[in-house]
């Protein structure tokens, strides 16, 4: 499928949630923890092509997602995306390892999902701040952003991996949102460190 989205920083997610619900948005999923791990070949083949392979665990469900190279757009992030649910996350990690893929970045966020018309809205909390992400068709996204008084100059096309690295978070460490979230085995939070060289994969 073709994924089209924008995001913008939001200082008060509770206020954004109330505003969206008053507009008629429907709550799809309450705030939950998402553990995101990106994989690549040691040579960085996917990163060089601006592609991404992500293994995401949300609650008891795990999904494997491939994201293609972003298409040209001045305001929107547009890319091909293919996703499937994974029943055995541990086995999938072994398969990825057997294929020569290695984990290159991992981060945790808290996400609340809503839907208004044909737009999916996510209220996200990360170590770098809080964001509202909108996904749908371009006209519907633009219309909703206008209703929320968010000018296009405030739209963010970059993905969370890029934003984390630009903020000084290094690869290979788990970063959680500022709010307390249940920690999975082996997960931890860390302080920002120097940014690695090279462009970041996408997620």
Molecular structure report:
There is one protein chain. The chain has 203 residues and is of the alpha+beta class. The chain has one domain (2-175): Hypothetical Protein Pfu-838710-001. It has helices spanning 13-23, 45-48, 89-98, 138-147, 160-166; strands spanning 2-9, 26-40, 52-58, 61-67, 77-86, 102-116, 119-126, 129-135, 174-175. The longest helix is centred in the N-terminal third of the chain and has 11 residues, at 13-23. The two termini are 15 Å apart.
Give a quick precis of the structure.
The protein has 203 residues and is α+β, with helices and mostly antiparallel strands. The chain has helices spanning 13-23, 45-48, 89-98, 138-147, 160-166; strands at residues 2-9, 26-40, 52-58, 61-67, 77-86, 102-116, 119-126, 129-135, 174-175. It has one domain: Hypothetical Protein Pfu-838710-001, CATH 2.40.320.
What's the layout of helices and strands?
Elements: E1 2-9, H1 13-23, E2 26-40, H2 45-48, E3 52-58, E4 61-67, E5 77-86, H3 89-98, E6 102-116, E7 119-126, E8 129-135, H4 138-147, H5 160-166, E9 174-175
Parallel strand pairs: 6-9
Antiparallel strand pairs: 1-5, 1-8, 2-3, 2-6, 3-4, 4-5, 6-7, 7-8
């Amino acid at each position: 499928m073709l994924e089209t989205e924008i995001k913008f920083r939001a200082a008060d997610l509770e206020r954004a949630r109330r505003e969206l619900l008053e507009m008629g948005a429907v709550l799809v999923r309450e705030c939950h923890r998402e553990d995101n791990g990106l994989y690549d070949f040691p040579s960085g083949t996917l990163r060089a092509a601006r592609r991404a392979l992500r293994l995401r665990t949300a609650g008891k469900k795990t999904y494997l997602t491939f994201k293609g190279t972003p298409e040209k757009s001045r305001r929107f992030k547009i890319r091909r995306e293919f996703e499937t649910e994974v029943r055995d996350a541990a086995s999938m990690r072994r398969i990825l390892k057997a294929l020569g893929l290695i984990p290159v970045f991992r981060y945790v966020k808290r996400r609340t999902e809503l839907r208004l018309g044909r737009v999916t809205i996510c209220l996200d909390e990360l170590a770098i701040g809080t964001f509202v992400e909108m996904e749908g068709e371009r006209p519907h996204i633009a219309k909703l952003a206008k209703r929320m008084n968010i000018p296009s100059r405030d739209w963010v096309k970059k993905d969370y991996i890029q934003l984390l690295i630009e903020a000084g978070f290094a690869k290979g460490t788990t970063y959680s949102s500022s709010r307390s979230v249940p920690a999975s085995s082996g997960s931890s939070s860390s302080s920002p460190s120097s940014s690695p060289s090279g462009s970041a994969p996408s997620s």
